[in-house]
Structure formats: structure tokens, C-alpha cells
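Query structure, 305 C-alpha cells:
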């Protein structure tokens, strides 16, 4: 029903005036909030209506904070606000109308197994104009210190979400693909090594873990074949609230991404063309049973030359 309403809502809006779109949050961290903004921004882009920006954690550090119209500036107008998917109460009325885009995940597993998201739509993340617009808006206002991989090695970014004391066991059980077991990373890393034909590699661990050294040791022990691979990670300022924007923007500089179903690293995979992206798609009895592998054959061929 929600999908049908989405397909017809542009027709229903033909009778209203001066409308726009804003968004709700899930209560999650930076990646979840940014995804809410991006979903609403797609509606604004596709339908050519204004987006009204709601600030979220770290958003004040981004260009979008100074470029977007702020929802707070609307004050009490427009009076009529409707959740996207519900349609206007009466399409014949001529009143300013503001649509609210609810948070929903990109991953189908979460939409199918966690029944909080009755409404969702697809975004054309490959649309070059939309990508260009988004990448200009989510840039930091001030330069950040990025992790820049060496150019003489194929670079692999591993995003390992541990929680760092922020996420409890209940969160892990409810969102298991955000916290996939270590075997997923080991298997994906071995697959990436094979994909790269055992070329020299640089592997950086992006994590909120308070003990990244132990994770790197397990990754090294799990390698199936001897490989020329340099491992790296932050040794200072560790944890879920450290270097959030620095790490987020650093992900865009890498060739290959191995990620959980965390919006923090999912968003770079939507907006950046990697040689390959590995992500868990299904889980049973604490074991990943399905992995999506997206390979850009053209970019990979050029990089392996």
C-alpha cells in the first residue's frame, strides 16, 4: 500500500502549493542520520521541491548546514505536515504542504526482519547529477586529516563495527548484520586478495573498537596464503566518538571496501565507485550465510595493469 501511494503521490500533490520535504531520524548515530537526509534529498531532487534541513550529530561541520534551507526557519508554517506515503488528507485543498520522509534502511534484510519500516523507496545512487550534488553538500566545512593509502599498493578499507561500549548486546542481537562475526571479514579479505591477484596491498582497519590490535592479529592469522599486505589502524583516540568525520571521508580514498550493514560505511559504497565492495546480506545462527560482492570490472582491470 505504501509503495502504491509513493507512486501516485506526485499526482496528488498537483493541487497543493509551496510544499517541501524534510525527514525523521531513527535515533541512531551519524550514518543513520545522514541516510535520512539523503533519502529526503532524493525526493527533493527528483520532484524539484525544497528540502528543509534538520540538524543532526556532526552536520554542523558539513557544507549542507550552510547551503540548505533550515526547517527551524519555517516556524509554524506550513501548518499541514504529512508523513510520506500517506498522501495529502484532501488532494483538492490548496494549502502549503510539507512532507516528512521517515527513516528506513537500505538493506532488504532489515526491512523484512525488523517490522518498523512500512514505507520505503529506491534511490538512483548512480545518477551522476545527484551524486555530484550530494558530494558537494556533504563535504566538511574545514579540511580534515584523512587517512590516505599509499598509491603503489591496492588499498582495502575494512569497517569493523564493534560498538566500543556504545552498543549493548541487545543492539547486536537486533541488528546482527551491523555486527557480523569476524569470519565474514576474514573470508572477504581472502577473497579480495585473490581478486587482486596477490598484488601488494594496504589494509586499513576503521573501527570503533577499543582494542583494534587484537582484530588485526585475527585478520592476519586468518590469511589463507602468504601475501604482501600492510595492515594499519589508529593507535590513539579510539572509540565510537573519535575521528568520526575523519574516518568517514577517508573511506572514499580506498580501492576496496569490506563493510558491515552499517550506514556509516554503506553511504560511501553508494556514492563512491570502488573496485569491489563486500557486505553481509543474511545470517543464521551467528554465521553469515550470504555475502554480496559488487565488482567494478572496468576499474579493477585498470588498477591491475
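Result returned for the query:
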Amino acid at each position: 500500500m505504501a509503495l502504491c501511494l509513493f507512486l501516485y503521490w506526485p499526482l496528488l500533490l498537483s493541487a497543493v502549493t509551496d510544499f517541501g520535504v524534510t525527514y525523521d531520524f531513527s535515533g541512531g548515530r551519524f550514518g543513520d542520520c545522514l541516510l535520512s537526509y539523503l533519502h529526503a534529498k532524493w525526493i527533493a531532487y527528483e520532484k524539484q521541491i525544497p528540502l528543509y534541513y534538520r540538524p543532526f550529530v556532526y552536520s554542523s561541520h558539513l557544507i549542507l548546514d550552510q547551503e540548505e534551507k533550515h526547517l527551524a526557519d519555517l516556524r509554524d508554517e506550513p501548518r499541514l505536515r504529512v508523513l510520506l506515503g500517506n498522501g495529502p488528507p484532501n488532494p483538492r485543498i490548496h494549502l502549503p504542504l510539507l512532507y516528512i520522509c521517515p527513516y528506513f534502511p537500505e538493506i532488504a534484510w532489515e526491512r523484512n526482519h525488523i517490522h518498523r519500516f512500512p514505507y520505503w523507496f529506491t534511490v538512483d545512487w548512480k545518477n551522476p547529477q545527484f551524486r555530484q550534488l550530494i558530494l558537494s553538500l556533504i563535504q566538511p566545512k574545514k579540511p580534515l586529516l584523512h587517512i590516505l593509502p599509499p598509491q603503489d599498493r591496492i588499498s582495502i578499507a575494512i569497517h569493523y563495527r564493534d560498538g566500543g561500549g556504545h552498543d549493548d548486546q541487545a543492539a547486536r542481537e537486533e541488528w546482527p548484520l551491523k555486527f557480523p562475526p569476524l569470519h565474514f571479514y576474514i573470508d572477504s579479505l581472502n577473497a579480495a586478495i585473490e581478486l587482486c591477484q596477490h598484488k601488494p596491498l594496504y589494509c586499513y582497519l576503521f573501527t570503533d573498537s577499543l582494542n583494534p590490535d587484537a582484530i588485526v592479529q585475527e585478520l592476519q592469522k586468518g590469511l589463507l596464503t602468504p601475501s604482501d599486505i600492510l595492515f594499519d589502524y589508529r593507535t590513539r583516540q579510539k572509540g565510537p566518538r573519535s575521528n568520526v568525520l575523519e574516518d568517514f571521508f577517508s573511506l572514499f580514498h580506498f580501492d576496496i571496501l569490506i563493510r558491515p550493514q552499517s550506514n556509516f560505511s554503506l553511504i560511501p559504497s553508494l556514492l563512491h565507485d570502488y573496485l569491489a565492495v563486500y557486505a553481509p546480506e543474511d545470517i543464521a545462527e551467528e554465521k553469515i550465510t550470504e555475502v554480496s560482492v559488487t565488482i567494478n570490472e572496468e576499474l579493477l582491470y585498470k588498477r591491475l595493469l
